[in-house]
Structures are given as C-alpha cells and as structure tokens.
Amino acid sequence: MSDKRLLVALDVDSGARALELVSTVKGIAGGFKIGTRLFTLEGPSLVRELVSRGERVFLDLKFHDIPNTVAQAVESAVHTGAWMINVHASGGIPMMEGAVKAGRSTAQRLGQAPPLLIAVTVLTSMNDEVLRDIGVQRPMLDQVVALARMTQDAGMDGVVASPQETAAIRHACGGSFLIVTPGIRGASAQAKADDQTRTTGPAEAIRAGASYIVVGRPIIAAADPRGAAAAIAEELARAS
Ligand code: C5P
Questions:
Q1: Residue 218 CA: which ligand 1 atom is closest?
Q2: Which of 104, 119, 145, 223 has its C-alpha lying 20 to 30 A from 71's C-alpha?
C-alpha cells in the first residue's frame, strides 16, 4: 500500500541514514522532506541523489530574504530537481511573487515541471504572546488565514499549516490550494507527541482538508519503520 499524500520527514543526522530510510520505505511514501539540518550537512547532492532515484523531494529550507535573493535561491533549488520548495509568507507578496516567477522560468528553461511553491504562515512554535512581541496584534488564527490568503494572491501553490489551522485555511482559500500538515500523531501514526503540542491523526488531517501530511518520528522511531509507514498509507487510503 502506498499513498502519494504521505511525505516522510528525513529528520536524521547523515546522508547515509537518510538514504537508508528512503530505501526502507520505498514505494510507500509520496515524497521525502529534507530540512535545514540535513541540507546543511549534506547539501544539494543528497537532493539530486533522491531525485535520480525517482523520489519527490520537499526542500524545507523556508527561504526568507529580499525578493531578489529568494528568487535566486528558488532558482538554485529548482536546479536540484526539488519537487516542492517553501518560503516564509511573512517575507511579503513581492518576495513570494519573485519566488513563483523564478520557479516557473527556471523549470521552463531546464525542461522540468515547475516546482510546487508553498509558504510557512506562522511557525507553530509561536503563540499569541510571541506574535505580540513582534508587533502582530491580531489573534493567531486570523494571522495564519491572512498570510494564507496573501500566499494565494502571490500565485503560490499552498501553505504549511498545523492541524488546528487546516479547516480555516481550506475554507478561506478554496479546494485547489495545497495544505501540507505536520504534527501527525495517533491512530496509525503511533509515537509520543514529542515536542508537537497540537497533533492530529493521519485520516483526521485529510478530512480537515490537508493535501499532504508530513510524518517524521512516528516512522523514524518505530521498531518497524516500513510497517509504520504502510499503516499510515493504509489509513490515508481509507480516509479518501
Ligand atoms: O517527527 P515529526 O512527525 O513531529 O516531524 C514533523 C516534521 O515537520 C519535522 O521535520 C518538523 O520540523 C516539521 N514541521 C513541524 N511543524 C511545522 C513545520 C514543520 O513539525 N509547523
């Protein structure tokens, strides 16, 4: 059983371990997320290696800089063959528009499919108090939905969102906007909550409107990672 909506977070400490995990769950997951830790260790060659194995890579580097720099970073990311790339929505509409333009034109030049470009709205580690500290007065959910709308207006494909925010974003941004949801626990994704404070099960996330779920520790830390991934994929298939 496989499900394209399951993205496995390669939250491991070396390229060798990452490749081992990719082989272990091969054919089950719809893609793999490479974050700043692994990318800083192993660089673009690991992305290229996964792409050459036919895997879809979500490059989770959360670009946030002046529009020209982000556009150039997106151009570089497209050269690695990444399937999905993200930025911070709080970088603003010109930054996101620059990212979209760079993504499309670079992909066209290279004869590739354009990458999916998504944005982080508000980091899930933040709360209303931290938002106020940085000058944001509106409540968390309002801020998340406002940034999701901005992301859509900039021509981006979707957002990363916590399970608690998914339904409101789906309602505000419509059916074809992508929502990528981490923080998956419970049901077939058995693991302790770790540092995730707001969690949801795989099927529940899909029913709330998620397009993709990102799962790390419930697979990586399982006694049988392939079995754990297969159980989550089965649960997703039943949810649709
Ligand atoms: O191990 P776990 O399933 O909690 O991993 C979730 C992954 O999603 C991690 O790579 C984490 O950094 C990432 N993530 C998250 N919450 C966000 C954005 C990304 O947990 N809001």
A1: 3
A2: 145
